Amino acid sequence: MKTHENGSPWIISVFILVIFLGGWHLLTLRPSFHANGKTDEQLQMMEFNGDIVRAGAGGYIWNPEKMNGVPGPLAVVEKARTELSEAFVIKGTNDHGIAYLVLYTVSRFAGGFLAASVVAIIFGVLLGLNRVLFRAVNPFIQVLKPISPLAWMPLLLYTVKDPKWTAVLVVFMAAVWPTLATTAFGVSSLKKEYLHVAAILQLSWFKRLYRVILPGAAPTIVNGLRIAFGSALVAVVPAEMLLGELGVGYLSWIEWNNLDIAGVIFAILVVGVVGVILDSGFNKLASLVTYQE
Amino acid sequence: MSEGERASKRTMTPNPKAVVQAASSEKYFECKVEQAVVSAVIQAAAPSRRRFLASMGAAALTAFVAEFLPLKEIAAFAADPVGKPEKTDLSIGFIPITCATPIIMAEPLGFYSKHGLNAKVKRAAGWAMVRDWSINKDVDAAHMLSPMPLAITLGVGSVPVPFYMPAVENINGQAITLHNKHKGVKTAADMKGFRFCVPFDYSMHNYLLRYFLAEGGVHPDKDVQIRVVPPPEMVANLKAGNVDGYLAPDPFNQRAVYENAGFIFKLSKEIWDKHPCCGFAISKDFATQYPNTFLALFRSIVDATHYASNPAHRKEIAEAIAPTNYLNQPVAVLEQVLTGTYADGLGAIKTDPSRIDFDPFPWHSMAIWIMTQMKRWGHLRGEVNYSAVAEQVYRAADCDRIAKELGYPTHQGVMAKHTIMGREFDATQPDAYVRSFKIHSMT
């Protein structure tokens, strides 16, 4: 069988992007305004309501400030340009530049994810080393694992009484179960030979953990972390929206509040970019600990 | 009013030079007060003693008087009749609606700083969030719907925490907005089967909508659906046709017209003219722990509310509160709401300067009316001591004291006669009023 290996993939990527943007632009184009068949009174009304504005010689055009329907790519680019030019400006308690919002979201995410990973790996190793304990605790993990992290939010808010920590804890809840379950699994299904060798060498408990168990289970743990990472990233945006905490999730909420759909699209793009950045960072870390057998 | 403003400026905004020389001028001031007290003592004394006292010499005499009178405290009191706020960095929660105008604009227009506070307003996504922030002390004070401090104090829909509502923010300023497809609707009876939104269970919006429907023979719990939806989502829901209408705070009524999604069916002032809507709320804990801060905040709010009440200031205010940091709305929409010259969505431009107005005085009769409606719709069960709760939560006497101090008009009593859709409400007979309704959800 012959495979097509010689075309450059990025040319195809650019082609897809151009088709997509072009289609988007054409679909959202608005026919220019014609005053035909409208009485002066109706025109006045439309002007008062901000639908149309006067243009030069007594004619009217659609108000460029007022969106109708889904905005085109140019409007989104324009929105992105103004937002990025004010990326580091703080205009008040409720209006921080986009750079700060990204920073808040990333630190909220990092705090919750790192704490969850540490806790989950510690408990996962303990459970993985003790089969009886693992089987005793497993039913609870299976029940808690599928609960949406956001379902915890009201209870957390009620007990913690602080929206900032609640947001971090929601991320924690999203990230803790997958890592815990896979770590326990990875440690318990470690090759018996490894542990036997460690026993023969009479390694201390700590050395056994550090030299044999963790490296042996590392690929499985990293897989668990990867699942946890995805689920935490999914949780952080709605947590910010619901809690009203400043961040990129919150940005999408306030743009929605103002029915500024160009702003909503911009916020979605920012969430995507933040995800890509975090993900590539995670992959770098992961490649340090995985190995080929 | 201008006199009051000037007076408050005199006491509130210290001359920068005076601040620099604070140490020395304070000393000077203390001496002056001491001298005044001492000479008053001399004046008051009988002639023979007066001669004796005068012979003692100034320093000895001052020491002598100080034995009996706390001169230091008198000096401090005279220098600062307001009392220094114990806490000046404050955070105040708000929902981005025009009802919160005085609370919000007090930041950009400098009413908080004029009264010696560094207050920042913090936007919340919904009323439950404002309630939780307030109860958990994430904010020091908050903009609330006028039934909320009553509900929180009574423990309706939350743990009971004593709250104060020192001042009403806005009166009127809400509307029933319907989807464009309902342009033929004339009365409440035409609305059977509709799906409505209100911003919160314990809101004037909910109680006014229910009152309006019930007066038209429509049972709000049986003949229509009423859902709680955060105001910002209402316009989008209306646009999508998910709901038939809502009784909501502005700017979301005007915003529906602006988006060509709906029309203004009835302003809330046509149901009850001068009804309260939102208020300024603070926990009793905070007010007692920081009494001077509370007073300074109270002054800022009363001051700002009266400023907002003046139609001449409305355009300036619309521009001040439109940015992303506050309401995040087009200025054109806010101007239509605040000036009362607006497009109704039916093709007419209407003018009603009292579409929204601002008046801080929290009539106890308003609180009592709200509690009668809480009972009527089953939000509140059992016996209620209406006037005691009203007195505890709605700080009418304090509000008038501050109004007087700032030179604004004051009131004769705490009970007003209210007429709601042509029906008189007698606040002294709340139980009889509750029983008088045929349509209700009491068990």
Structure description:
The complex is a heterodimer of chains A (293) and B (443). With 293 residues, chain A is mainly alpha-helical. Chain A folds into two domains: 9-69; 90-289, Orthogonal Bundle (MetI-like fold), CATH 1.10.3720. Chain A contains eleven helices and four strands; from the N terminus they run H-H-E-E-H-E-E-H-H-H-H-H-H-H-H. In chain A, strands 1-2 form a two-stranded antiparallel ribbon. A two-stranded antiparallel ribbon of chain A has the order 3-4. Residues 1-26 and 76-80 of chain B have low confidence and may be disordered. Chain B has a five-stranded mixed sheet, with helices on both faces. A five-stranded mixed sheet of chain B has the order 8-7-9-6-10, with helices on both faces. Chain B has a two-stranded antiparallel sheet with strand order 5-14. Chain B is an alpha/beta fold. Chain B has helices at 2-12, 16-20, 22-44, 47-55, 58-68, 71-79, 101-105, 111-114, 127-135, 148-154, 204-215, 231-239, 252-258, 284-289, 291-309, 314-321, 331-339, 364-376, 386-393, 396-406, 430-435, and strands spanning 89-94, 118-123, 141-145, 163-168, 170-172, 174-179, 195-198, 225-228, 245-249, 262-267, 278-283, 341-343, 349-351, 356-358, 418-420, 423-425. The A-B interface holds A 42, 45, 48-51, 65-66, 91-95, 157, 161-163, 241-244, 253-254, 256-259 and B 91, 96, 107, 120-125, 129, 132-133, 136, 138, 232-233, 235-236, 255, 257-260, 323-326, 328-330, 332-333, 343, 347, 349.
